[in-house]
Amino acid sequence: MTDGFIANFIDDCRAIVGAAHVLTDPVDTAPYLTDWRGRFTGRARAVVSPASTVEVAALVRLCAQHRVPVVPQGGRTGLVLGSVPDDSGTALLLSLRRLNRVRALDAVNRTITVDAGCILQHVQEAAAAENMLFPLSLAAEGSCTIGGNLATNAGGTGVLRYGNTRELCLGLEVVTAQGEVWDGLRGLRKDNTGYDLRDLYIGAEGTLGIITGAVLKLFPQPKASITALVGLCSPGDALQLLQLAESHCGPTLTGYELMSDVCLRLVATHFPALPQPFPGRYPEYALLELSSHESERHGVALLEGAIERALEAGIAQDAVVATSIAQSRALWAIREHIPLAQAAAGKNIKHDVSLPVSRIADFIDATDALLAAAYPGVQVVCFGHLGDGNLHYNIAPPEGIAHDDFLAEQAPVNRIVHDSVAAFGGSISAEHGVGALKRDELARYKPRVELDLMRALKAALDPLGIMNPGKIL
Ligand SMILES: Cc1cc2nc3c(=O)[nH]c(=O)nc-3n(C[C@H](O)[C@H](O)[C@H](O)COP(=O)(O)OP(=O)(O)OC[C@H]3O[C@@H](n4cnc5c(N)ncnc54)[C@H](O)[C@@H]3O)c2cc1C
Questions:
Q1: N or C of the chain: less Cβ packing under 10 Å?
Q2: What is the spatial distance between Cα 470 and Cα 437, in angstroms, rounded to a whole number?
Q3: Local confidence pLDDT in tens for the 473 residues of the chain
Q4: Number of H helices, E strands in the chain
Q5: Beta carbons of 87 and 95 less than 8 angstroms apart
Q6: How far apart are CA 96 and CA 76, in angstroms?
Q7: Does any ligand 1 atom lie closer than 6 A to the CB of residue 100?
Q8: How far apart are the first and last CA of the chain?
Q9: CA gyration radius for the chain?
Q10: How are strands ordered across the β-sheet holding 390-396?
């Protein structure tokens, strides 16, 4: 493309969004081009920040006319290189963060309609102001956007009770790859009128179109949330405790996280100010969250009842039940500091995998053994949303081997872990998506027919191939 074309193209972008919202100087564009973990820096023709659906549509039409690739970006907290462009410098980076209005809240329909660039935490706060709950919750909630949550079908800590972002969405507004606006902002819980286009765009990571608005489900605000940490002997015991807690507490059990002792030791080393909940140590820990719509006393009684049974049955070894919001936050802080402690310890090889819940313990035992045989002394840092069958199964080097050197083993380690995931009937991406990072792995593990159907959808909805190219497929 000629310099003249580029200048005209940039001028056309300025005419659509205003000169102040088109960045081309490398100093200004840099914060948008490096991924969250700092592993990759791409290049873009410009970073453009539209403020309305109409502006997004005009920009996409301009890009379609000139065959310019479009990379949508929300909070840039994605973990699979989905929201940063490649290093060709041909793409337009479309930042959605100025689309940040809460459009409407319908308390009777229990829905909130928001722009896609709204920060997740702001949506939670808008719901809470009306005594309602928007239950999507994850550690990046102060930065990630609803558009990014939808595009990656984010999970988080409330999936056990409320489902992934897909299950929290009733309607979408989308700018198609042709620059048309599809208004599907329907707040309907039942709508069987043909193909579900909403479900196509959710989880598509910006490869089919740009999400500009959404109707999201709200729930009654629980009266109390109770948290407990339980010391356990094994992942198998964690599964037994999950079953016991689910049948004892029913739908009041809203979260169930697993953390190994390796994780807690990492947190204790790098964040010594955080409290140590038990005097002794256990190989595994489960973090349980219960939400009561009756009262705190009701919630505590239910959770303590489940834990007592587990202690009597020898499933649980010890437990602490938080008796204040501060104590509850302190228990969650341990869980939330695991990724930060890992980062402080050095780089490691990460996997975000899902398995049938019933097979998790066997998967952990089998895969730990395979890795120990291939890399004696290797450290598995395993934690995750056990109630959803989702593990963050991360591998740190054996003592004495530098973290950076161990990264050279990424491909063979991935092969061991992902082959094991496949053997246990799991998925190589549970909640972070595919992006550019797992594209080749996806091609390896998805059945051919499934890949062909995905390619056919991509070709039908984005025939010019301009929507976030190189991601997923
Ligand atoms: C500390 C931390 C904790 C996390 N915890 C979790 C967790 O518990 N569960 C979980 O699922 N994820 C988690 N993540 C991953 C990430 O935060 C989520 O996936 C989040 O949903 C991404 O939102 P975002 O706005 O930052 O999207 P971005 O990173 O900006 O984009 C993600 C993908 O969505 C596309 N996209 C963004 N906006 C749009 C749009 N409007 N229309 C179309 N496509 C779009 C991008 O092109 C990209 O492919 C975590 C990340 C961090 C850094």
A1: N
A2: 10
A3: 666 777 899 999 999 999 999 999 999 999 999 999 888 999 999 999 999 999 999 999 999 999 999 999 999 999 999 999 999 999 999 999 999 999 999 999 999 999 999 999 999 999 999 999 999 999 899 999 999 999 999 999 999 999 999 999 999 999 999 999 999 999 999 999 999 999 999 999 999 999 999 999 999 999 999 999 999 999 999 999 999 999 999 999 999 999 999 999 999 999 999 988 999 999 999 999 999 999 999 999 999 999 999 999 999 999 999 988 899 999 999 999 999 999 899 989 999 999 999 999 999 999 999 999 999 999 999 999 999 999 999 999 998 999 889 999 999 999 999 999 999 999 999 999 999 999 999 999 999 999 999 999 999 999 999 999 999 99
A4: 17, 18
A5: no
A6: 10
A7: no
A8: 25
A9: 23
A10: 316-321, 224-232, 284-292, 253-260, 379-385, 390-396, 352-354
Tell me, in angstroms, the distance from the centre of ligand 1 to residue 121's CA. Answer: 13
Token look-up 């972008």 returns: 13
Using an 8 Å Cβ cutoff, are 364 and 409 in contact? no
Q: How far is the CA of 349 from the centre of ligand 1 (A)?
A: 20
Query: How many other CB atoms sit within 10 Å of the CB of residue 298?
Result: 16
Query: Token match 């200004």: residue?
Result: 28
Residue 210 Cβ contacting ligand 1 at under 6 Å: yes
Q: Which residue has the tokens 């006319």?
A: 65
Whether ligand 1 lies within 6 angstroms of the CB of 81 is answered as: no
Contacts of 323 (CB under 8 A, 6+ apart): 300
Q: Which residue has the tokens 């953390």?
A: 259
CA distance 431 to 173: 23
The identity of residue 315, as a single letter, is I
Cα distances (angstroms) measured from residue 331 to each of 10, 274, 304, 407: 50, 9, 16, 31
Distance 218 CA to ligand 1 centre (A): 21
CB of 171 closer than 6 angstroms to any ligand 1 atom: no
Ligand 1 centroid–CA 83 distance in Å is 8
Q: Quick one: CA dihedral 301, 304, 308, 314, positive or negative?
A: positive
Helix (H, G, I), strand (E, B) or coil at 188: coil
Q: Which residues lie below 8 Å from residue 122, measured CB to CB, with a gap of 6+? A: 100, 102
Predicted TM-score of the model (pTM): 0.96
